[in-house]
Prior knowledge:
Blueprint: E1 11-12, E2 15-16, E3 20-24, E4 27-31, E5 35-40, E6 47-48, H1 60-72, E7 74-86, E8 92-103, E9 115-119, H2 120-126, H3 130-145
Antiparallel strand pairs: 1-2, 3-4, 5-6, 5-9, 7-8
Amino acid sequence: MSLKNRFKQRYQNGSRLLAGYEQDDGNYKPKKILEVLMINSISETGLLFPKGGWENDESVEEAAVREAIEEAGVRGEIMEFLGNYHGETGKCTSMFALQVKEELISWPEQNSRRRIWLAIPEAQKQCQRAWMNDALVHGFLKWHQTGVN
C-alpha cells in the first residue's frame, strides 16, 4: 500500500490524525499526534507553509484558501486568523488555521511542490525564518491549545 496517496485520511480541528502509541509503565496507550502541513520552497532549500499573493478581487481569507489549493493541493475551511507575521524583508504574511478536508490528487503546482505533514517538533526544525516559528508556536499552537477541541 502506497503512503503517497492518502485519500481517506481522518482530520480533526485542521490537523491530520495519526495512529500512534506511547509507552507508560510497560503499557501502550493510544496517542494522537498533531501535524501541520508544509511544502517545499521552489526558490531555495527547505520547507515553508503554503502562502502567497493576495489579489485585488478577493479577501485575504479567499487568498489563503486559494494558495492552499494552488501550492499544497488541499481544500479546507479557515478556522482562525492566527495573526500577521513580518519577515526579514518587511513583507507581512497573514496566517490562518485551515481545517483540511481534502487532499487533491491533482493541483496547479504539483510538478514543483510536494506536501509534507510534520509533527510540531519536526515542523519547528524546518522553520528557516523567525516569523515562521512565531506563526507556528505563538499562532497555531497557542490557538490549538486554547480550546479548539
